[in-house]
Amino acid sequence: MSTDQTDLPENQLQQKQSATLIYAAFIAGLCSIIYELLIATTVSYFMGDSVKFFSLTIGLYMAAMGLGSYMSKFITDKLLQRFVIAEILLGFIGGISIPLLYFTYTTTSLFYPTYVLLTLCIGFLIGLEIPFLTRLMENYQVLKSNIANILSFDYLGALIATIAFPFFLLPVLGIYQSSLLFGLINMSIATVVLYSYRKSLGKTGKRLQLLTAAMSLVILVMLVFSSQALKHWDQMLYNGRIVHSEQTPYQKITLTMSKDDLRLYLNGVLQFSSVDEYRYHESLVIVPMILADKPIKRVLVLGAGDGLAVRELLKYPEIEQIVLVDLDARMTQLAKNNPHLVDINLASLDNKKVQVVIDDAFVFLEKNKQAFDLIINDLPDPNTISLSRLYSKQYYRLAKSNLTSDGIMVTQATSPFFVKPAFWSIVKTIEAAGFAHTYPYHTNIPSFGDWGFVLSTLHPIDLIPKRPIENSLFLTQESMPSMFVFEKDVQRIDVEINQIDKPVVLDYYLNSWRYFSD
């Protein structure tokens, strides 16, 4: 036989209610950080510039929390009911925040207003929580113990959230399902408070229980059908049929197929189209290979987890070893196992000459002790703060220290037409890193437009091919020298050097692309 709340002695009832409020503080801290991280991550995925949007999200969040805390002092009656209503609203709005952002991004022009409004609403409701909880706890503890307990459990929840987000939620559930799940977890605050205080709340409590159940049911239904919704919205972002999509700890990988055109996207940004990727990868690999004064035997490839650059390198029998370094193990696993990728990379990563290392490029260069004849930087564009460091003077200095004295480094360097300041900043940064000779070049890639590269050495080289151009689908002996000629509208301009503590290339890149995308 169960014991009803009315049968509990007064001291036990107070202990139960006090524990309920402690639980509420813990869950509040947990959910508040998760919502903030989810919103900032989602906007960064869609719009790029993670520094800008994380900073903006934190600023809006904190301002709204401050306003919520300030406004709480004007709420003097029915405190418990108002706290429950705030939690119901917070659980529902926070839970559907990411689905709503997906919807507005793919179907409307209201993405920015929705992002700002959601951030302000969630921040305001979170700002109400601690003042409400502190005042509710006055019935059970003295002020100093009251505040200490509420804040300590709130901070503990926040700590767990910051650990769970990168190591579990993002790679396992993804941002969409995590939002819905934590909406339900947030709703549990209203559920346990309504149960613990059901006697004192009376009919009001029953009405709030129905509201909690209804809101939770909506979120639960959205969670159950989240896979279908994600497939639908993901498909709206791409022209081709999605044949693979997954969220890794580092990025969202998407493969699409349209007729014979396989495309790879990382965080929604196109990395290659199988229709013309050969123009990019041949420019990246063949140019340094045929300009080298001496045979190249050891090659380091940084990035290029899709295996396409390695495919080109394996055409040269004199190469004895290729070390491929990529941060994301899932990318290289897909390159080895996905039939669509294997079909175009020719199973290059399974070749006995190839060693795959899962590591950060910067960290690998710091640890490596063996010099390479050729270093290929086939890295994503510098559209985030973490990627911009791989285009910094400090990074290129490390790369230089990993080269043989007569070695060559080549870097993909974005578009000299669309993001001209970023391209020439990369050139200037490589020069500042100690490379005595840089040779910028470019070619047309239909999927990307005019695309640039930088060949760098410690000694001068002749730009006349040292060997016949073989196994190329578009390069010829006669056409290759023209790649090093820049037309008037893409010629060198005065820009700053990119450094870790001053990532100017990020601003150059984002500002230039924004001009062409508006």
Kindly describe this structure.
This protein is of the alpha/beta class and 518 residues long. The protein has helices spanning 10-47, 50-71, 79-107, 111-136, 143-196, 198-224, 226-237, 277-291, 308-313, 329-337, 339-345, 361-367, 385-388, 393-401, 420-432, 504-517; strands at 241-247, 252-258, 261-266, 269-273, 298-303, 321-326, 354-358, 372-378, 403-412, 437-445, 449-457. Strands 7-6-5-8-9-11-10 form a seven-stranded mixed sheet, sandwiched between helices. It has a four-stranded antiparallel sheet with strand order 1-2-3-4. Helix 3 (79-107) packs across helix 5 (143-196), helix 3 packs parallel to helix 6 and helix 5 (143-196) packs across helix 6 (198-224). The chain starts with 9 loop residues before the first helix and ends with a helix.
